[in-house]
Amino acid sequence: EQMDHDPNFQEFGLNSILISPLKWQQEVFGLLSFRSKDMSAYDEHDLELATQIASQIAGAIAMSKQYQQLAQSESNYRDLVESAHIIIWRMDIEGRFSYVNETFEDVIGYSSAEILGTYHWNVQPANQREDAERRFLDHANSETNTSGETTYISKGGSEVQLSYSSFAAFDSDGAFNGVRGVALDITAERQTREDLNIQSAALEEASDAVVILLPDTTIGYVNNAFVEQTGYSKAEAIGQPSSILRSGSSSNAVYDRIWETVREGNVWRGTIFSRRKNGATFTVDLSLNPVTCPR
User: Fold this and answer.
1) Residue closest to 42 by CA, chosen among 103, 97, 89, 1
2) What is the mean pLDDT of each run of 10 residues along the chain (295 residues)?
């Protein structure tokens, strides 16, 4: 909105203002505003970028469940943006960085002076540069918005995993004016995901049967060795009470003592008889380990 006829804004030398609501799932936490002394400082592409930034901020506020306190001051909003690692960049029509914010500098390691004028694919792994150039050309030839995950190489040489959203910018004549985007650093999340995949693969291929029981003792997970030893498929076993494995040779009191030991946070080890799907019994050297989740 132009403020050239508003004396209240002229008093402070302001001629343009851009405001976007901090909105997440129909709930508005506040406003994100940009002000400039220049006339016509913002266009519809700036509005779209501001909307994306505001959405990222609002999402971080909602997830942190601290928006009541954070909404008290503008400085707290800035702190939230930095703690959420919201990266903002602009690229010119050739694909070179024309603007990066402080979070980009913190996460990627390059200062503005070092990175501005650099082709953005030059900070990506060599095997991804061709695809990055192609995506940039797709932006230049259409108004398509893109989102996904990509990798940048930090100044220190480490890989930084980003979840990004970017879109093409056009000037008032409809000519391509570059690309703008926002991103979150998901390096730690990606590493956690990879670690979990490795652990899951190890459990699947373990030679011993592995069973995860839920607090109500229903079966929540079984590995391949369990399937081979019991004859139950994963689909047949998961969701069933663990009692389907009881042979009937031990009383309910025995199982009650076992579960009491585990629920007290102790490991139970022993040998029991179990039952296969076909009804045959077999001996099992059993170890039950309690699993606690951090609160």
Assistant:
1) 1
2) 47 64 76 70 77 78 55 55 70 91 90 93 90 81 78 92 87 85 86 78 83 89 91 93 89 87 89 92 89 66
